[in-house]
Amino acid sequence: MRILAIDDTRTLRELLCRTLRAASHDVVEAENGEEGLTRFSEDRPDVVITDLNMPVLDGIEFTRAVRARPDGGEVPIIILTTESASEIKAEGRRAGATAWMVKPFDPQRLLDMLGQLRK
Amino acid sequence: MDALAEIRGIYFDECDEFTGLLEGYLAAMAEGRATSEDINGAFRAVHSIKGGAGAFGLSALVNFAHRFEACLDALRSGRVSVHAAPIDVLLQAGDVLTNLVQASRDGATLPIDSGLLEALEAFCGGTPKQAVPAEFAIEPEPAPAEEAAPPAPSRRPVTVRITPDADLFRRAIDPRVVFEALAGFGALELTCDTSAIPPLDSLDPLTCHLAWTAVVNTDATPGAIVEAIDCFLADHEFTVLDGSDADHASAPANQGDTPSPQADAVAQPGPAASADAAAVAKPEPAAVTAPGRRAGGGTIRVDLDRIDKLMNLVGEIVITQSMLTERATMLPKREAAVFVDALFSLNRQTRELQDNVMAVRAQPVKVVFQRLPRLVRELERSLGKKAELKLAGEDTEVDKTIVEELADPLIHMIRNAMDHGLESPEDRLAAGKPQEGVIRVSAEHRGSRILISISDDGKGIDRDRLIEKARSRGLIAPDVDLTPEEADNLIFHPGLSTAAKVTDVSGRGVGMDVVRRNVEALGGRITVESSPGRGCKFTLGLPLTLAVLDGMIVRAGAERFVFPLSSIVETMQLDSRSVEPLPGGRSVLRLRGEVAPIIRLRDLLGIRALGNEPNVVIVETDSVPRLAIAVDEIVGQQQVVVKNLESSFRRVEGVSAATILGDGLVALILDVDALPAMTQTSRRAPPMTGMYGAA
């Protein structure tokens, strides 16, 4: 499965990508939402995993932009963030986020979630 | 160093970046000129430090960063006005955060002034809006939370009411994902409430009108069930009712003032975390080595663009200076002497200026090299091979752009060496070699170039296969015999990959030809030496900088050309008695007992002759150790500013770039390493008339 991983923190992006690649996923990286949108159009991921707080274009704006695209309605978007306040979560849902996971993530849980979303 | 430790290293490097940025943002706030971008930036910096610290289980750092972040969040959201806020608290917190990062890097602990913690709390209006998430510990601390938890419930029905928002489907979510997650807990009985579905004519298929009631027969706690589905559904979209007391549990399990067990876990700092906080608050000066500023301190961040502008300016000064030198010759003798003296000083100062600007841009190749050990380890695993990576010359410095461009070719070549070069451990043993292969990567300065070599002790290039392949594709005639070197060089031919099958690691068809193209685009060169059964060595030669070059200016016909000084061995008068003709129209120059092929620049470039060619420049090239180039005149020696030719014209064989001379005319900078190949093949450059001298 091709996964677009967006996080402005290199360390966390690296951890995420490593986890995903170890599970034989094809991973495309982006540093912020804007780069994420470019990657989204060019690499056509099956699933997107994005951070929330990022410069240039944050996770919520990114999600909104993807959902506004004609081809962006069906791709699950997982928001992976340290935020767990329910009002932010609700905003994420309204923007169109499929799932929410709190960092630091349990790699197995993330992979399980991907497995569930894939079906 | 294992993989996690390595990422940890990257994390701390990044932290240095973040604390540096943070300092800038806080300074802006202290000076009362902070924009919302500064506040956001400060928030993000602290937030990122916290996120990484959580991943590495640095709970003291997480705790402090969290409090700090809460303050910045209060500023960001406008709950606290930046003008009214006690900024000195933030400045102090910034220093403490920097020190804490240092301490965490060194594995030390650092007491935190409880006064500061209180001040931070007061800053954002009492307690932080959300206490430190207990889940921040990377490995669940041996959770005393479990001691306090009630005994595991027995199997009973648990009811989950799912009432999704109407926009459920717009979130690209399939409700079955939730049902499957629930089914993981035990037998599931599902009923769908379709009462809200409108008449068909007003039905929007993208709007969710459904609600579900799921009854799971399970021994799991409600908390575990909430945890399994709350990643997919918002808090108000579901309620979990424990069957055993479902009758009176009409209040949603996870809403408002009855927090879910999950929310509970989040709201209460884990005992481990609070213990930690206590440790932090307790002053323990003995345990601390005050980290202070890091040695060498006093750094500022400068936008790369500014340095580039500076570099360009230096380039322009070099041009102006050569113009002045040119004009000096027109002055009357007495004035010229004084003028030349001053020019001499200017010359020295310009060079110094240029060296200093270049030093600002210089980076050690370590930046790229340090990524290699991990790459090798990963390849070892995926290929089932064993290899030891030996690095040398990591501190060699080179211009930042070159460092950046170096990464891809280097990684590609390491992959190649691991995939095609090194044999499997069994094959190595059979060949009488140690099981573990060796890959060496080294960097060194040579003149104004940096040489990077990548060698392995594997089986070397499979020449026969390469030749066979090249023949089968008609790249070489069937009757042509290639020297071993020529055969090895086929590896740079587009579309020739010797991998028997395309593997994940290499052999996708984009191969060494791409590496060569990229390296050449940087004004560099790549060569290969291989000995069958013993290994293979690639050498990359790259310029240290792309901006300025010491050159020797020569004339051929009416045109002037520049040789990079670094490739010139000597210059001399051409003595026709030392020239010996060879069959086939070529000739060689006898040079102190050795011979050097001689080429005439005019002939090579198709320039009309004016008089004879009395001078010869001896250059060193990658393929020919001594190459004699006959020219009409040696004009002089000077620094030239390299102007890319490809961006304004196109790539020209034998020419690496162009420059502007003191008289304002353009001269081409010759790519000496490409000259031998131009003489050997018939790929002679087209007549160059009209291509230059057009400044």
From TrEMBL, chain A:
Classification via Pfam families: Response_reg
SUPFAM superfamilies xref list: CheY-like (SSF52172)
Residues modified to 4-aspartylphosphate: 51
Top-level taxon of origin: Bacteria
Ranges where the Response regulatory domain occurs: 2-118
Keywords assigned by UniProt, alphabetized: Phosphoprotein
Protein known as: Response regulator
Originating organism: Alsobacter ponti
From TrEMBL, chain B:
Domain of life according to the entry: Bacteria
Gene3D superfamilies given in the database record: Histidine kinase CheA-like, homodimeric domain (1.10.287.560), Histidine kinase-like ATPase, C-terminal domain (3.30.565.10), HPT domain (1.20.120.160), SH3 Domains (2.30.30.40)
UniProt cross-references to SMART domains, sorted A to Z: CheW, H-kinase_dim, HATPase_c, HPT
Pfam families: CheW, H-kinase_dim, HATPase_c, Hpt
Enzyme Commission no: 2.7.13.3
Keywords: ATP-binding, Chemotaxis, Kinase, Nucleotide-binding, Phosphoprotein, Transferase, Two-component regulatory system
Residues recorded with modification Phosphohistidine: 47
Low complexity compositional bias, start-end: 261-276
Region spans: Disordered: 244-276
Catalyzed reaction equations: ATP + protein L-histidine = ADP + protein N-phospho-L-histidine
Keyword set includes Phosphoprotein: yes
Domain HPt: 1-104
Histidine kinase domain boundaries: 312-546
SUPFAM superfamilies tied to this protein: ATPase domain of HSP90 chaperone/DNA topoisomerase II/histidine kinase, CheW-like, Histidine-containing phosphotransfer domain, HPT domain, Homodimeric domain of signal transducing histidine kinase
This protein's record includes keyword Phosphoprotein: yes
Span of domain CheW-like: 548-681
Protein purpose: Involved in the transmission of sensory signals from the chemoreceptors to the flagellar motors. CheA is autophosphorylated; it can transfer its phosphate group to either CheB or CheY.
Protein name: Chemotaxis protein CheA
Native species: Alsobacter ponti
